[in-house]
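Repro:
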Amino acid sequence: MEALSPTMEEGRLVKWLKNEGDAVKSGDSLAEVETDKAIMELVARGDGILRKRLVGEGESRPVGQLVGVIAAADENIDSLVASAGAASAAPAKPAEQAAPQASAQPAAAPAVAPSQEKPAAPVPPPPPPATQPQQLTASAGNGGPVRSSPLARRLASERGLDLSRVQGSGPSGRIIKRDIESAMAAEVAAQPAAARAAIRPASGADFEDISLTQIRKTIAKRLSESIGPIPTFYLTAEFDVSRVMEMRAAMLELGDEFKVSVNDVLMKAVATALAQHPEVNAHWLGDRIREHHRVHLGMAVATPDGLIVPVIFDADQKRMSEISAEAKELAKRARERKLKPEEYTGSTFSISNLGMFGIDQFTAIINPPEVAILAIGTAADVAVPAGDSFKVQKRIRVTMSCDHRAVDGAVGAAFLQTLRRLIENPLMMVF
């Protein structure tokens, strides 16, 4: 079992791509393996014949344990098969203990599938089931423009909803505010229903145990490492994003190449603020704190199998349009489980946005060794005092989780002050 990601300790063999007796060459794809982050290919590291498949589909093995043997047709592999059987019967060992055993094979032994070389390109997962909410039918199937109100367009943009998939109920099929709200409600309601249908056994039993995927195991391990030993405190602030909305509208008038979401603007603001506060853009390493001089921004993406955090590298040096394009591509590939290991490792600070789900405020769990994470809620209209009366502002609430071992309250507050200045004056990020 090859280490196909930097944090992988075991892999689950999803599907064999070669049968016993097939001739293989170095670099041929042997099997699909589920790692802690994605489904990737296990490739042959030698020429010969796949003499023996030692692991069945759906079974897991720690890194370094034999999963198959490639050898010449007349070579004796009995000792390898016997040793692999003994290893699988014994209690699983940690990856760091299993790997030396695998590397201790004699030089004359047949070529063995597992290795510690560079992983192959990810294998595309099977297409998602075609279960879409009834409300999300295309209203412009003839290729014509989608008729919608300005408010509906803004709400759809904020929530990442494709207007061409929404049925309009206004005059002449025009999409209005209530259509966006109905589409989002139908989409959210359909997801739990589909999940319940997927896990309900045909036997009618009262329950069914679902085996953990590799990514879910990693999530459980990483988060238990975070919330327990890390002394965490939380700072909440509310920002006026009215000017962000105005800037987005002005950018849209310039063309699609300048189209950005509120989240894209917020990511640019966070990255810019981090460059000014290296004490927050840091890692806790036990006996020292490492302050980073480059800003690598992790963005939490929900997938059907769990949470993954792809990284936008040097985010403070990129334009909003570049961040927008990269974020969309990374999120898409994360949901398809096509990310490469180097695309979800190396973040120096992370953000998590649940605003598109209508969540006003929440707290996020720090992703160690990072020392903070920012949770972003939804943008809402709020009445604020203006002299003797009130005015309505579009405001957003954020909560920063801080590791008190590295970040003090005043340090976190200073970072949020800088972030406030950037968000409430977004033109500062343009020049």
